[in-house]
Amino acid sequence: MRRSKTNYISRILVYSILILYAIITILPLYWIFITTFKTPAEAMSFPPTLIPRSFTFNNIIEIFSSSKVFGFRPFLNSTIIALGTALIIAVISFLAGYGFARYKFPGRDVLLISMLFINLLPTLAVIIPIFRLFSLYHLYDTYIGLILLFSFRTAPFTSWLMKGYIDTIPVELEESAMIDGCSSRQTMGKIIAPLAAPGLAAVAVLGFRAAWNAFFAPLILTTSESIRPYTIALYRFVGEQGEVEWRLIAAAAFISIVPVVVSFGIFQKYFVTGLTGGAIKS
Question: Does domain 68-278 bear CATH number 1.10.3720.10?
């Protein structure tokens, strides 16, 4: 009886902590959402309103239409960089994960561990050599430079993830395909790649999110407005205005959240399957 009562109290405590954590997490997002659709007067009113008196889309329209605020270009830059990173990450992670999962070679385990240690290095610790390399190879202030940087910074972790996922695919499937006349390349492309689609979706979403939310690297490695992503535009808008327009800040933040939420919503099933599948034998 005492054990049952203790378990009941423990469950209530755990649920209370989870609910509190959920409220703390959701409140800032809710505040961004309602401020996005408020009029300028209502956004600055006190006490603040929890529900907009009248919804307006003028803030979002102003974000995209006014070059003095943001304009469309920073979001287009972020989209190009994030999609390019997601594509390269999917290809690199699949090839590396397949190689580590299916081939045994000297130094394989050491290389896997080294990749994890490389992934733990903060960008700040390696920004000077990266800056030097970008200047030397004319990658400074270019799309391809940022795409390659985000891809190679995320690839160690996503390669581990893909290795764990490919480990769950039976080797017998490849052996049967080879008996039927398929080459190693055909087996990898026609058998393993389709079966590894959930893992590919997971690493693509991770790469997209990392590139979409990046701030420090684009701040150092770009100068022209035609390349800089929305994170830099948002930073400059906050820092250069004498009076901060919180309704526009909220609108820009809301717009920046949408692509990540949409991509996760579309690939949610594959994302969860890819992460849990890759965790089995990693």
Answer: yes
